[in-house]
Give the backbone structure.
Amino acid sequence: MTSSSEVISPGSLAAVTAEPGVAPPAASSPARTASPDPGPGRPGWVQSANGALKDNWVLLSLLCLAIFLAIWQFYTAATKALPGPWEVAQKSWFFLSDPFYDNGPNDQGIGILIGYSLMRLSLGFICGSTVAIILGVVLGLNRTLYKALNPYIQVLRAISPIAWMPLLLYSVQDSGWTALLVVFMASVWPTLANTAFGVNNIKKEYLNVAAILQMPMLAKVFRVILPGAGPAIVAGLRISMGSAWVAIVPAEALLGSLGLGYFVWNEWNNLDIGNVIFAILVIGMVGVVLDLLFNRLAKVLAYTD
Amino acid sequence: MKVPLLRVENVSKLFYIPAKKSDYCVFDQVSLAVEEKEFVAVLGHSGCGKSTLLNIIAGIDRANSGYVFLDGKETNQPGIDRMVVFQNFALMPWLTVSGNIRLAVKAAFPQWTKDQIEERVRKYVEMVGLKGAEHKRPAELSGGMRQRVGLARAFSVNPRIMLLDEPFAQIDALTRGVIQEELVRMWGDTGITIFMVTHDVDEAVLLSDRILLMTPGPHARIAQEIKVDLPRPRTRAHLVEDQRFHDLRQRIVDFLTMKHAA
């Protein structure tokens, strides 16, 4: 075991302040037993503390799931009010084993339904994000305009996209377009606010370099401003995607547009709670996958000064 | 009469201080001229406004009065003919070494083909000794290597004059010496005029043909001009044995430590 007095590493203040030869306090002691053989040249307890943490979260996560399923099963057995985990698993298997069947508008495979929702989501999201990024760059570059419009943006982003629905439906008189516009509305505001913020906070020196190089406006936007604000923009897109995905379910349910939201509502009308639970799980899973995509994008565009 | 490459005429800069509701005059009526292929250094205390003066020449800051002429033409906008090397490097952190140089080359030669651009990027990467590190981002480089990129970027656009804003202040002393000598070599090879501001006396003497001494602010001005007639190539090792170097250095230090009437 390496003497604690030799250890100076971020996040291990204990090591820096500890007396020479004195074991670092509590946080590290379980780790020490977990991994008694530290790697060469590394302070043992710091490394094993990380390792132990890594092992633990998967176990803890699985434990939480098991507890949840147990409570669910217990509740079901006691009250018979809900379909139990096993029944939901069977229903899930039924849907997942044949995801692309098509027996008319009220009975379609889960793959097709996900496809409808994702199509609507991507179309609305791409349009919303494009508008948001363009407007965000303009506002980010013009402080006066930003200050003038910021109050309205704050008001607009506080409005649930669903609240727009009656007005939109009344205006465009078409449920398909209304669902798209709801997604659009949900997508715009976080990306707009983040883009304006990101562009506004680009270091002055990068813009000075662009000015000295006499870059034309478009080159400046694509080679300096967008990459510079990239991380902030992606953070906005990620929130937008989340809020669009949250909005699309009630929009489809209320407007009767084919998709996951419609599916969950249709199963409720059929009083098939097992299917409703399955639909809820699918909505959650798709949301996680979408978020992971943006996590990847964020990693690609991240930079350190 | 021959027109100097760069001429600064009666340039003054005021900063408004909100707390005092009054203007603070950083420097007052500064005039100077730089000839073609010269290496001129402005030397002064921190806060005397020498970086501001450089920014005004670069066009990224505005003077409150006075003029800047490049090749006899007045200029008050930033331009690729006055490329700046920044103290804090100002490299785009999302671009690689090559990417940063390419950004400048593309801007300088918009009509060039991809091959021509790549050729030039490669040439300047090699010139500053960064071959092998082309694909690294600035965050992965030491301060010395980052400033090599800054220098390569500046030389690659073939400016009329290069403006160096305390370029080696953030680089460790050992590396500094090496890069300073490389800078002199590149200056000789390319024949590009250099205007540098610094607070490092040795650096000014080692590198420049002429040193302009600035008094401390407020109302800073260029009070003296010193010709550095030490033979080139100069190396630190030779200079410390040269009595003229010590005399020059002493003159400058005396000036900088003297009390100046505002």
Summary: Chain B touches chain A through 24 residues (CB under 8 Å). Chain B has a mean pLDDT of 93. Residues 173-190 of chain B form the longest helix (18 residues). The helical segments of chain B are 50-58, 97-108, 114-127, 143-156, 173-190, 201-207, 236-239, 243-257.
